[in-house]
Amino acid sequence: PGGLINIHFIGAFVISSLSLSLQLIPLIGFIGLGLGSAALYLLRLALCSPDVSWDKKNNPEPWNKLSPNYQYKFLAVSTDYKKLKKD
Questions:
Q1: DSSP string covering 7-60, please?
Q2: Transmembrane region positions (predicted)?
Q3: Domain residue limits, the chain
Q4: Does residue 42 register a pLDDT over 60?
């Protein structure tokens, strides 16, 4: 009916495609790994980034409470946080 997509039909189509061609299994695995990695990185950015404020009443500017040697980047190429002066 209408524009509804039948989830069981899609699942059966994927399973029947995999049984016909085994070369699709690594492709689906790598796509799943990429999507999972991207989702975890976005979750890390949302929870650990000082630019994101989830509590606007108690902590409206969380970036002001960070010390200069706090490493908030996932990969700091040019900054060595060990050499920064501690407060």
A1: HHHHHHHHHHHHHH-TTHHHHHHHHHHHHHHHHHHHHHHHHH-TT--S-TTT-S
A2: 24-47
A3: 1-48, 49-87
A4: yes
